[in-house]
Write a structure and sequence with these properties.
The chain is α+β, with helices and mostly antiparallel strands and 371 residues long. The protein has 16 helices and eight strands. A hairpin with a 5-residue loop joins strand 4 and strand 5. It starts with 12 loop residues before the first helix and ends with a strand.
Length: 371
Amino acid sequence: MTENVPFKHYYGVQLAALLADKVALVHPAFDGRAFVAQVAARIDALELKDRVRLISATMREYLPADYPAALDVLLNILGDELDGEAGMFNKGYWVMPIAHFVQTYGLEHFDRSINALYEITKRFSSEEAVRPYLVRYPEQTLERLRVWVHDENAHVRRWVSEGTRPRLPWAMRLDQFVRDPSPVLELLEHLRDDASLYVRKSVANNLNDIGKDHPERVVATLARWSRNGSERTAWITRHALRTQIKHGDAAALALIGYANGDGLACKALTITPDRVRIGEKITITVEIANTGTDAQNVLVDYAIHFVKATGKTSAKVFKWTTLTLDAGKSVTLTKNHALHDVSVRKHFAGRHQVQVQVNGRLMGSGVVEVL
């Protein structure tokens, strides 16, 4: 893939033509020219997910009306499995509409469809496509995942984790796992020491999702996992607790080696300048002292309460630094933060509160006026 090309543009007329050529090789009756023309007539105005839906829906019109026959055609064009853990987006991106096809049209054919997703995910992740099956056929789908969690293919093992995330971004929320993550945690038990970092990243993300609704349970699970002393598990623990750490969860912080902040103090906090325009930066300077009798591990975050379009504020916590501070010592830290608009945040004028959080405790605050 070419850098700086929006991902949605890979799902356009060229991809429709690519799919048409592949399908024609195994299903000569496919009217590739009409398929591509129908996609081309509508796709330019659409965003990514709607582009995938359009290609999938148009395939449904031009493939055999019998779903199993149509699925056989699509499975026959998948080609080789990805070689290694990389390449899903560079090599397998064109498979996404096929996963969506099974997600949307295959629910009446559980066995055929779930096995198809297993094959598809070796080329492009079926993490979103499996979710309607977990909702409609929870026990049958979990039974398959309990087998596939041991699969030799890392893409399949990652799929087991990613597909069961309760709050997977941009996908259907799995409310049954939001309420009770027990089936998910049972699967993750088998991946907690996985040799693949690619898989462990998904495990950490899944636990991070679960921790938004069941923080104590995630901490208890990771505490138990940590007893084996594995560096792989330690990596998962650090990344799985990131949201709880930003929220100052004392149990999560203690698990990764940060005490409750007793003996730590914020002696000085300045924010300069105190009036800025949108697009300019502020500099946050803080002095942190260890007044205790022992050295302490210190984790410093900062939060900005951004003014929204409504005039209300919403806090966002940012990571700052970690360090070890000897007894009786202090350290001065400086952080620059640019107040410019980004894709996920638009800035508005008003008073923005800035807070410094040390080992989960609020230890200082100030205000900057954004003009």
